Amino acid sequence: MIFQKYLAKHDLRDTPQRELILDAFLTLEEHISAEQLYDIVKRQDPSIGQATVYRVLKLLMEAELAREIDFGDGVIRYEHKYNHPHHDHLVCRGCGKMLEVVDPVIEELQKRVAESHGFKLTDHEMYLYGLCEDCRRKKSAGPQ
Amino acid sequence: MIFQKYLAKHDLRDTPQRELILDAFLTLEEHISAEQLYDIVKRQDPSIGQATVYRVLKLLMEAELAREIDFGDGVIRYEHKYNHPHHDHLVCRGCGKMLEVVDPVIEELQKRVAESHGFKLTDHEMYLYGLCEDCRRKKSAGPQ
DNA sequence: TTAACAATGATAATAATTTTCAATAGGATG
DNA sequence: CATCCTATTGAAAATTATTATCATTGTTAA
Fold it and tell me: For B101, which of A106, A113, A122 is closest by C-beta distance?
């Protein structure tokens, strides 16, 4: 609905490809790369091109339905934005496990840090990297 | 000196190219991309190859002399790490101006957030984005 | 000085993403 | 419903940043 409204407002057409990619994206729970999404969508319609997937992801960003996340590994991933409020990411350096976290005090302090330099904060990114319990156990138990 | 020690310890050779690139990097105050560094170095020695610049930056990382920063625009930049303790970045969405910031309370809270999920924090990245004073003034004054 | 091999520069390769472009297909209008 | 205009599509080429390859050069230690 939101996407359709966005399309209408911007004189863009509602095509079966766009619907398919949107549905596939919304069905997913976790963040996903353009290539992964292409793989999924291709199963339902092998004729779809990957450029279209990239194009739709860009549209979803503009429609505020998707948000980019970048762990710095050269691949951009996307996650839901609609009905999925802001949060940061806690990532395990060992196994890659990822948790969404928010700390309201940090959020408030970030605003203040920005203000103390004359900035009006618009948004931020925070990635916490560490080792999860499992990986720490493996590390101390296993050889070296 | 530190770089030379690192080279010696790892059975790597101290070459004029490595010296030149290291010096150019250390002379710089701000963060820089591999390509920008290549441009600078090329002026002093046009025969230098850009692969060497990429290779030396990798060495500087291993020697703890450089640190990567990634603003998510597809280009990796590097900044000094030696004698330049950890900090985060406050970036203006308007003009790109960048400030280094640290808030010890945020740092502490990050550790606690990680611990509350069973993680042992190893490092983090935090980018605060906003509008600086100048850009805000321009925005409210200028047309639209 | 010479054998062994690390380092270099040029270039090719990679990988993710974007652009190009000819063919196709929405959808408003008559 | 047919038609025209133009947005959209898929395939493939182009881009961009970075990495790998490889023949040649330079260093070092015996």
Answer: A113
